Fold each of these.
Amino acid sequence: MTERRPSSERRIEILEAALNVFVKKGYSEARMDDIVQEIGLSKGALYHHFQSKRDLFITLIEHWMDQFSAIERGGKLHGKPSAEIIQHIARFTAKLFQRNPNWFLVEPEIWAIANRDKEIKELASQLYSRVLAEFETLIKRGMKYKEFRQVNEKMIAMTIMTSLHGMIWFVLFKPTDFSLEEYVDLNMKLILDGIAIQNEK
Amino acid sequence: MTERRPSSERRIEILEAALNVFVKKGYSEARMDDIVQEIGLSKGALYHHFQSKRDLFITLIEHWMDQFSAIERGGKLHGKPSAEIIQHIARFTAKLFQRNPNWFLVEPEIWAIANRDKEIKELASQLYSRVLAEFETLIKRGMKYKEFRQVNEKMIAMTIMTSLHGMIWFVLFKPTDFSLEEYVDLNMKLILDGIAIQNEK
DNA sequence: TATTACATACCGACCAGTCGGTATGTTGGC
DNA sequence: GCCAACATACCGACTGGTCGGTATGTAATA
């Protein structure tokens, strides 16, 4: 028998294993037995901690959202210009991506499922709303302090986010000519220069 | 019995039905019976035209690629500046998206599967390479005629493409404040202004 | 009459979820 | 400090429905 552990710990262990399996095989192809095997647990144990496969997946998304929210993306930059903070967040995200690609590679899976499952769509929407709000605040701040032109902050926030999502495509269909950092930097530069009030050049 | 039709026609009919079902339910959840039911055909008939579910899906991707390739995106604009052509392609794509959302909404499904299936990944890569090449050519042309600064055309091409992919996200998690056209226009403007040789403003 | 397009009935592998049971804590009464 | 009584964590054989795929037969077409 496997070493007993408190539910709170075991659940997280299971969630991490599930992430790996879901990314590798996709939701439908992922077998409860695969997940269980990764950590040398039994199926019965899994069903002791989670009601169903769907429950597991939903909990996974929630857990994953919490982790993202907990991350100090912009930290230590309070006085700095918004553009700098946004650049920093973008680079930070790129690094995070390289360290934990699986955290991001679930996303296509989530999108695919969100397309047909209301609850999961709702969950994903919530996460994206949070991220969007974060960027919107930064942009509004930048406009207030005459760093940025008057723009539609919602639109720009969304552009930044989808731009970061481009990373997933980048990694999925790896081109060889340039690095993820260069790519992300360029994307951010285009957006930020585009909305900046020109005083250079 | 259903009206008999030549294989070439029936195959396309099946592919179209399959696209709907794959988008609605996802590859794994899609049932061969669902597809067959959509057009009032029998399972035996389906297996007369396609060897397997996988075969059907791969053929679907190929068919889908052919359709995209066949589309005259940039047409009638031969003498115009590259920036204008790119803008035109982007708008055209947005319109196409609104008319045939399913053509685009399979993409997350394809990505998700590409992540675990080499052949499908290869197919998708091919399509994207083609599109990328198209943009690269336009950008090189723009650089040659001093319309654009000297930039890494591969990177910009990719930025344009992932930017267009943002549409999928847009539609999946519909925000209400602005239209797809506005969004695409803004994205293109940011990129194109960013690489333009300044002579306005 | 050969071939192509279709229908119908059927097969069997596969897997989410179940359930009877064991093993290892934990708590409270004496 | 001891031991019921209960709770939590875990095991794994089993099942029942599902669904991709097949075998076989029939009607239309050329």
Note: Residues 1, 4, 31-33, 43-44, 47, 52-53 of chain B lie near DNA strand D (CB under 10 Å from a C1').
Amino acid sequence: MQIESVKQVRRKEIIRAGTTVEQMVRAIADMIVTGVMSPGDKLDEISLASRFDVSRTPVREALGQLCAMGLVGREPNRSAVVTNVNERHLHSMFEAMAELEAICARLSAQRMTIDERHALEAEHRASMQLVHRRAEEEYATHNTQFHTRLYRGAHNDHIYDLVTQTRARLAPFRRAQFRLPGRLAKSYDEHDVIVTAIMRADAAGAGQAAYSHVSIVSDASTVFASAKEDV
Amino acid sequence: MQIESVKQVRRKEIIRAGTTVEQMVRAIADMIVTGVMSPGDKLDEISLASRFDVSRTPVREALGQLCAMGLVGREPNRSAVVTNVNERHLHSMFEAMAELEAICARLSAQRMTIDERHALEAEHRASMQLVHRRAEEEYATHNTQFHTRLYRGAHNDHIYDLVTQTRARLAPFRRAQFRLPGRLAKSYDEHDVIVTAIMRADAAGAGQAAYSHVSIVSDASTVFASAKEDV
DNA sequence: TGTCGTCTATGTGTATACAGATGCATTGTG
DNA sequence: CACAATGCATCTGTATACACATAGACGACA
């Protein structure tokens, strides 16, 4: 009886804390993406359970989802670990990202509605101010929206899934891209080429512009080297 | 004590039956892919648990993986259901598949080693016999291998993951493609164009050939219509 | 002193128990 | 007779218990 009341209280606390599985996934993913946890770090189920004040069961659920997202690896009878990608694999992800962006840009050039084209152009034009003000954080937000518009503009749900998934897996390696001097202006110019091609319905041009945009932004080996030095 | 011995026995049975989570995933995926279960069918945890003679816990694990694979959908406090894709979404998957195949063919034309090129060509040539013998089953096996060679030949791990994943999700809708009259010969001819382009290191040609090959094979709306009539 | 074996501690995998939510059926009322 | 409300049954979500696997430490023997 007393035990049950304890359970009740705990349950209330959990509900109040609002620690759902989804939130745990977000929290752990954030820790990985922001570098709080480094590749190779163990994710102990018991520690996580006590940390989020839930039992191991939902923790395992969350780890399963993170595993599906590719952020953590799991082996039988072993703790889940933050996935440790090697340089070759990282390069393959950046290349895949470039290919997917190119597809989205091509399809966007062909399929975007008038409204979508106008919205893309307007948002892009407005971002010039952010470049002048050197507002890196805000530009990063705009940049995410800009690319999301391309993914949506392709009007293909499955490709949207693939590109979003790839983007999530690359997130840990894209930190602070816009801090580099002149990077904002360069990004804007590259966006401009893409937007212009899309407005002209120039599919091939948009695809090529998007490919080189992402390829240049990534420069995988450099990114990886810097990321590795942190470890 | 007695309870424990019962558990022991059960455990032995389970081990003997060898019903691991991975096997359950395979079994359920097969049921979906082969049409034993139709889109919209409920996947009751308790029924599955008794069916595989395990508790609900590993069943939930398996359902989570199937959800990540996109074969089943889950909503809170509701049974998992076999994903019911609409025509638009199915079309988007076929289109994505064509784009991914094109990428793999392009990259294969550029990157395959001499050995890989020879193996591809040899296997392709050998498949002509299967066409003459109208060996649909065997040709289907060969076809899978052929495409897998293209995915591997691109030398990009992440793209391999994406294309494999997409292929798995499309599996339920590709049954009996090779039963159609003349389909084998047509497939062979299309493979031939791809192989020739790859042997010449003609990236653009290989990409285009692969795209139209997959696009024609799929013909999404027809496939969907027939799949739908079964339901 | 080094190496191999065993023992223990920690953590995962699975089973079971229980609380909450949802959907359906049954009953009561207009 | 139809519709709504309530009760019940069923299934999911989470907690907890227990058995097995693995790794690291300690001791024995060469």
Note: Chain B is about 75% helix and 5% strand.
Amino acid sequence: MFEDRQIRAQLLKGTLPLLILATLRDGELHGYHIARRIRERSGEALAPSEGALYPALHRLEAEGALEATWREGEGGPRRRYYRLTAGGLAALARAERDWAAFAGGVNRVAAEGSS
Amino acid sequence: MFEDRQIRAQLLKGTLPLLILATLRDGELHGYHIARRIRERSGEALAPSEGALYPALHRLEAEGALEATWREGEGGPRRRYYRLTAGGLAALARAERDWAAFAGGVNRVAAEGSS
DNA sequence: CTATATACCTCGGAAAGCGAGGTAGCCTGA
DNA sequence: TCAGGCTACCTCGCTTTCCGAGGTATATAG
């Protein structure tokens, strides 16, 4: 049947950068922690896979939105901490604006009894 | 630079079925008209391309969410009119629920000063 | 007869998510 | 001692779906 596959599977597309940038607004975090924060804050509604998260972090770093440093982990493997650059902050503002416009548009189209 | 490309380009992913199904809630329409309605109702925020729209319609039809009939157009080329099936109505409800959960999750993560 | 608007379609390419799989360090318990 | 589990990172191949470009066809306006 026409199942959850189609909608759910693709919804995350394009919003991961926003989620990552927003998560890093309060301070630096490492990748695994970012994923956990997104899950928690979204109330488990969003759960980006590692196969999506790490490439997204690399992209943002390559674009200059994030800076990263390796740190030896206390009681655990080494971690890569990410923080926003000035450009990243601007990218976050842009991403929020884009998301608001997009979500608003979808809501207007999907709203019942609009004409 | 980290430009609009990244967010905007992929945002539509996964929401097209919802937009199409919602647009057809009030009655049958043909493809071109559906595209126009989405543009109008979203306040020009959403403008799915034909290369995305027609395949999406075919997918929904193949899945049984839509039924379609050809009609000779009065003053113009022939048109294919789409309408919701019972299954399509259910799919619409599901898509709306998924969208609400997803958008809510993104908003919670992106919201400033949440903890 | 050409241009424009409507209306449909398909193709190739790119982007980005997912799952599976792999490496590695540390801790716990049999 | 060593198996299992948690943290933490990474990559690869697969899939989906979007976009843009291009193509067909009909009707009307100039």
Note: The two ends of chain B are 31 Å apart (CA to CA).
Amino acid sequence: MEKTLINEESGEMVKTSVMSTITIDCVIFGFENGSLEILLVKHGRGIRKGEWGLPGGWIKEKEGLDNAAHRLLRELTGLNNIYLEQLKAFGDPDRFPMGRVITIGYNALIKREDYNIKAGFTASEAKWYKIKEIPNLIYDHNQILDYSLKRLRRRVRQAPIGFNLLPEKFTLLQLMQLYEEILDKEMDKPNFRRKILRMKLLVDLNEKQKDVSHRAAKLYRFEDNIYKKLTEKGFSFEF
Amino acid sequence: MEKTLINEESGEMVKTSVMSTITIDCVIFGFENGSLEILLVKHGRGIRKGEWGLPGGWIKEKEGLDNAAHRLLRELTGLNNIYLEQLKAFGDPDRFPMGRVITIGYNALIKREDYNIKAGFTASEAKWYKIKEIPNLIYDHNQILDYSLKRLRRRVRQAPIGFNLLPEKFTLLQLMQLYEEILDKEMDKPNFRRKILRMKLLVDLNEKQKDVSHRAAKLYRFEDNIYKKLTEKGFSFEF
DNA sequence: TCAAAAGTGTTAGATATACACCCATGC
DNA sequence: GCATGGGTGTATATCTAACACTTTTGA
């Protein structure tokens, strides 16, 4: 892996031996029927044909990291404007058996309703797996996933990002069940309601559920600019 | 930047054009005289000679990312066993003017007493800067530092990592002042004492300060295995 | 009328916050 | 004795956690 690169210190081109290849791998989360799921792809060719892994790909020459991740997600799901968060770089020298490849992990949160509408045209086989039924994955992808889940659990308590996994309009019980599933912890319905409503973060849509065989619940929406305004006033989301 | 690399999908070597170079940059925090400081280095050669930047360097062929960061820190400070935490990868295509270079940021926390003993032999000029007096730095290093500080502020409230910036033996007021400085927020002495002591995280050394012109304070020590045991019992550090 | 979920009320206990006050030591 | 920080006590407001209870709706 001898190659030309630039010495940051001197600004000159020098011959030196360092590792080089970089990829991006995405942990794409979805929430459906009360279960947290991630989207895996089946490797179509090569040594590990048939095994599952995180969707990923290369970064282009003039592309920022976040842009590359957005592009890869668009290619896979047909969706733009996905909530995205870089995890970190994974660079164990042995993580990839055929050479030194460093990968940058991303967490993506998508609304399953959007995915169901737009996706399906992808070439490589993709499938949603419940978080508790993840198979052995290629390379170090199980490790990346472990890290990803820990990060999601931490982040979901610090910032209002869970909404990215729910439909535009949702009920408080749906929101609570999302938290219960992500944090793997039972919660108290009355207390949850009060806590979230007290934040004044949600817009009451004055609409109700339809076609449910029980009392219809109010629908709410999360709006990012409300959160921003509250944050400016010193509010800090905590769960 | 045409070069040979491995297609992850197929396992075959393919010719393709992607970016390649990777560096590590470290934000090294210290705490002295009630001030949070970071260690910057002066660029000795090249275009931006004389300007200050974060210490960093290359990753070796068969070296993990964390190991590379540890090695760089050892080269710069003479210290082993530094508390280290990866931030994330910074990869704006224009961040480095002379070519595509992605850098992986690290936060390092060191005890100034150790540094003062071991350091000083380094070739490149290094200097501690108070966090409120940071000059303009090379490349995107101010951005990396902004991210680093936000991360430190978040982490210091979630995990007992602040101790890595204090001497082995410290008083509760020192600890409180560290928190006040990092979080940029005044705190109440009695309440801080109770809160931290209630956690039963600190070892009371049954020792007192010496040579102080006021009532001598008790000295405490933080021990990681106590924290681990508490964590196993469900304790979670929060500030 | 029953099941299922929506939604309200109440209370005991734990935490946070603010601040008054005494203690020990060197100068 | 006074300045400086060490250290204790206490009252109030707020939040958490547990759970009893009423309401609405479709089947």
Note: Confidence is low (pLDDT under 50) at residues 1-17 of chain B.
